[in-house]
Amino acid sequence: MLGLVIDDFAKEYLHSDLREIREAMLRKLDGLSEYDVRRPLTSTGTNLLGLVKHLAAWEARYFGEVFDRPFPGVVPERGTDLWATEAESREEIISYYRRVWEHSDATIAALALDSPGRVPWWPRPDVMLFNILVHMLTETSRHAGHADILREHLDGSVDLAPAKDPAFWESRRAEIDRAAKAASERL
């Protein structure tokens, strides 16, 4: 009985964190132009809307295919999920991500934490719902971190930090830069 209580607690804890980080991911798009959510901000083309599309595609696979509960819509082919085509609107991609959430949430609700699944592209393909919850929470958090940096680069917006005067951040950056230079000269 205690194992079941712990499993239920762990499942809800992980699922709650996943729901929160999904929403944080979408907040990164708020207030930005169509160009800014799509434009490549790294040498590999990483962009905010592409990260959302990527997370949606892989969440659909992990909570769908892995548990033989296929997502009822089209899932972008691998390699086409990291950017939005000119024909795909921001609203379509956000709506797609939210539909994936509904499907994933239904899978999570329907299955026990130790329910078996299979990830054929992993070296150890036999998994449980627990593994996939941890994996998707990790991946979504990782990409939300990328999105934090991209958004800060675009307009200085910092989601998790308290609102600060731009002069504060300029001073902080200068202080960090001085420390970096001093350390490099010392070593």
Estimated radius of gyration: 19 Å
As a percent range, the share of strand residues is under 5%
Which sheet architecture does the biggest sheet show?
2 strands, antiparallel
Taking the alpha carbons of the first and last residues, their distance comes to 58 Å
Instruction: Extract low-pLDDT stretches.
Output: none
Shape: globular
Tell me the series of helices and strands, N- to C-terminal. HHHHEEHH
Structure overview:
The protein is mainly alpha-helical. It contains 6 helices and 2 strands; from the N terminus they run ααααββαα. The chain has a two-stranded antiparallel ribbon with strand order 1-2. A hairpin with a 7-residue loop joins β1 (116-118) and β2. α1 runs antiparallel to α4 (90-110) and α3 packs antiparallel against α5. The N and C termini lie far apart (58 Å). The model has no long low-confidence stretch (mean pLDDT 92).
In short:
The chain has 187 residues and is mostly helical.
Which tags fit this structure?
about 190 residues, mainly alpha, two-stranded antiparallel ribbon, globular
Topology summary:
Elements: H1 2-27, H2 34-38, H3 48-63, H4 90-110, E1 116-118, E2 126-128, H5 129-155, H6 166-186
Antiparallel strand pairs: 1-2
